[in-house]
Amino acid sequence: MKKIFNINYLLNIFFIFIYLNYLFFLYRIIQRTNPWIVADWLINYENGLIRRGLFGEIFFWFSEKLNFEILNALFILISILVFIFYYLSLNIIKQANINLIYLLVILSPATFLFNFYDPLTVGRKEILFLTFFAFYIYKIQNEFSFSEKYHFLIFFVIGIFLVLTHELIVFYMFFPLFIKFLVIKEKKYFYINSKSELFFIFGCLIGLSIIIFSPTAFDPNTPKIICEKIITFNVNENICRGVNGAIYYTFLDKSMGHLIISHTFDQIINNNYYNYIFYLLIFIFSILLIFSFVNLPKNKSNFFYLTIFNFFQILILCILFVIVNDWGRYLNIYFIINSLILLKFFCFNQKKLKFFNSIIILFLIVLNLTLWHMPHCCNKNFGNGFLSLKERIEIRIKSSNGYEDKSREFLIKVLSKFDTK
Fold it and tell me: Which residues contact 348 (CB under 8 A, 6 or more apart)?
């Protein structure tokens, strides 16, 4: 019985569960060649240097050389990335030797349960960002971490690679620099010991410049040429679904920028995007609640730095939210990185609690993980967690576009068990 209620044992079960859930929906999304998710990975440089094309170009090159099936290989690759991310995250949590109260952020619908509550967030490119940040947080120990000269080059190349794969990493590129600032004891040596992190930022900016100033970045023929390349690899042409897909937005022009921004403001007005302010406030409240139940150190300077940096980071995200409408996805990246920072650098011993207080904490954890969730975008209603989970899954499987598979049949059978007669 003791083992069942051991936090580490429960965390192992939790991460196995969310990983299997991720694989289940990843398989379905890839087999349907989702034009937003799968297509984003397969954008390539067939028509020259464009945004988000580096990964796809490398992927197709290996496919031609090794003669592997594109969709199966993509499923395996993303599965490995997700496994590494969960493995690193779990080890960060275990190293912290957490108390019960920290489950408020670990079991939050805004962090690791995000993909469970919204399956359309599965298989997105942000897994590359999250894996990189999780590895960085897991490995960093002190101001001398990542200080070798070869680290400068590695971080520089990673910055370029991530931006050329998905340019929105630039809105999170200051996180490694902030983390290094936290671990440096003598702040006057900050820039001397932060060269790798500065090279990462420099690499991100170089990658962004390459995208903006590429001569083919503004060619409207790019989507058509990219699609033709993808289809030659026996991928369903459903992946090129006009304006309803990632490939359509691979070229840049002024009218498209105006279209994207106006569409975002329409979403804010028509889909109650002010709900995302509440999701942010719930997450902040969870962190404040954690700090109220632990023994804080006398030196609170790092808390001040954390507050200032997050204020600065939220301002950066406000700029991002003008040009994207799937706010939930990008808040999820922000919440997960902050949660890992919290667990690595702000994990303290819990205060001695009376039995009644422990029950209250358990009650709050259960409420937090069940009564709400954060949709990735375009939802008029406040996410109400488990209360609408069955309904949301039914909507997904009924809009199958005529594609039948065993996973869909399995879901239909499971959901039918909960039907009221």
Answer: 294, 295, 296, 297
